[in-house]
Please model this.
Amino acid sequence: MAVTRFLLVALMAPLAFAAHRPLVPPPSSSAWRDSVRSFAEAHLQHTAWGPAHGRRDYEVTVWLAREEKVPVDTDALYAAAYLHDMGGLPPYAVQGVDHGDRSIQLVDTLLKAWGFPMEKSSLVKEIIDHHQYYRPADTLAIAVLFRDADILDFMGAIDVARIISLTTRERFTPDLSHAVLAIKKQMTDMPALLQSATAKKEGQRRVAEMRAFLDALALESDSLANL
Model:
């Protein structure tokens, strides 16, 4: 019953989120956007860092920008959102090179081939740079909001789904017990990393989702002893 209650909360929460989030219109039709999305869907599939994560980062950044009244170049944001984690995925990752730095190394060649307006490529790389929660935030407003959006994807019901999807696949989640530890750590650490007022408020809602899940799971697993 506890997990059922959590699922009901998790299902209803996005409706509440959507109620105060303006509808994000799809980007205007452009061949290069189709190429970016098609490339991501064909070559960057991953349950935690794939194209769905990029699309969420794009939409949440647009929402944050509207709430914070920050202008957005949706061309640069769209490209950065889909490609910011590319450098962490095979065959593009390079050992010893941070995935964001590696993505920056790769994007120009791809974007030029796809017909992207290359006068905006420096902004794409600026948005990608320092998006990682473990690095200091950039000073550029849209880059700050993109980082906030990326951090928010490490919170809430979506984070629970992402972390559990990694169980047995990543070294830090060899089993469910370690996955739960990762969820607890993110629930504790991520809120303090958010910069914008809107993201901080949304982070509080997502922390409540995570806490509700962990409480329900503890109730049904002998205080997490039987996972």
